[in-house]
Design goal:
With 372 residues, this protein is of the alpha/beta class. The protein is built from 10 helices and 12 strands. Strand 8, helix 9 and strand 9 form a beta-alpha-beta unit.
Length: 372
């Protein structure tokens, strides 16, 4: 069974350290949009927004409702969790959905679709932190703790879980190579199947005949479009080893044993098979991404891993709905930034952090050289 403290749903459910008992959970229900389908909603033809094409309106909705780093709650640059793509707490502003029914009906699903489900099994100091009053401390005395949200999949409404399109899993290498990714894929698949059964049951037990069509059209056709597996600079087996030793007095075999290395993960497409009448886990355009981070002094070691990964192929499994293997898309993302803290004695004056991203997509180029 998954551990509740390892799941983060950044918005709109508050990140709190307190757990929630099953008896405290609200009853399952379909989204309000399901009921509004049968009610008269003003078309808002005089609104400048609705004079735009549906495609432009959706672009605006996505830009406004996307989950982003909260500008008023930034992470300090010295925090381990800080990086250029994660500068603060995750947040989504949904005020737009409360302006009128017409906007709500067009955009109600986007906050859930645009929010990443984040699973933490990486280094504890890579998690957000919260402030909690000390249990036996003096009045007003608090302590800083790593985020333990106390959220499980079934704390969401079933329809919210079905709209998830992006999952990020953060692992220490021992967890990743010990089957962590496969275990979580199975958990998520099982949760989605249960969620689908729940919304189908709610639609059939309601007197409104249009609910079944709403569920089939909006909730039972989506799949996860992207899975990200991330390792930070302290998640590697050998993250504390001094890279300068490889150039000094270590034997070649010993130096190699201390270098960063990564086994090819199993194919996400082969972890769970597709059974008859089951909800597909991944969408037809599913992509698998690796985000790997290390210290600047080990950038060359990380580069060798990326060069090997360019040739990896992730094949569909038995009974998979996917026909093509996932291959490298021909690009490598590069990020670097300076940490304010020295995390290893051998860092000396260089606290730069290097990150490389590699993505695998259906019909990718693989290890073949890109040509213009």
């Amino acid at each position: 069974m998954w551990k509740e403290e390892e799941v983060v749903w950044p918005w709109p459910w508050a990140q709190t350290p307190q757990g929630v008992r099953n008896g405290d959970l609200p009853p399952q229900a379909l989204p309000l949009a399901a009921k509004l389908q049968t009610h008269h909603v003003h078309s808002q033809e005089q609104s400048p927004l609705f004079r735009l094409s549906p495609e432009i309106r959706e672009y605006i909705y996505r830009m406004v409702l996307q989950t982003e780093c909260h500008p008023a709650k930034p992470y300090p640059p010295g925090a381990h969790i800080f990086r250029p793509s994660l500068t603060g707490r995750l947040h989504a502003d949904t005020a737009l959905l409360r302006t009128c029914w017409s906007i709500y009906l067009e955009a109600w699903a986007l906050p859930s679709m645009l929010t990443t489900l984040i699973i933490h099994q990486g280094s504890a100091h890579d998690r957000p932190r919260y402030t909690k009053r000390k249990r036996f401390g003096r009045p007003g005395e608090h302590e800083r703790l790593h985020l333990r949200p106390g959220k499980r999949f079934f704390h969401l409404q079933a329809w919210q879980l079905l709209l998830v399109q992006r999952v990020e899993m953060r692992f220490q290498q021992i967890s990743l190579e010990g089957g962590g990714m496969e275990n979580w894929i199975r958990h998520i698949n099982g949760a989605r199947q249960q969620a689908n059964e729940t919304v189908q049951h709610l639609a059939l037990t309601d007197a409104d005949a249009g609910l079944k069509e709403f569920v089939d059209r909006n909730l039972s056709t989506t799949g996860i479009r992207e899975l990200v597996v991330r390792m930070n600079r302290c998640d590697w087996w050998t993250w504390t080893f001094d890279p300068r030793n490889a150039k000094a007095d270590l034997a070649e075999a010993a130096a190699h044993s201390q270098a960063l290395r990564l086994e090819k993960p199993p194919s996400p497409l082969s972890v769970v098979g597709h059974e008859a009448n089951a909800l597909p886990l991944f969408s037809h355009d599913f992509a698998f991404k690796l985000e790997l981070e290390t210290f600047a002094q080990k950038a060359a070691q990380l580069g060798r891993i990326i060069d090997l990964a360019k040739h990896w192929e992730f094949q569909p499994g038995d009974n998979s709905t996917h026909q093509q293997p996932l291959l490298w898309d021909g690009q490598v993302g590069v990020e670097s930034w300076t940490s304010c803290n020295s995390e290893c004695r051998w860092q000396v004056d260089n606290t730069r952090v290097e990150e490389r991203t590699i993505k695998f997509v259906p019909g990718g180029t693989g290890g073949r050289r890109m040509t213009n």
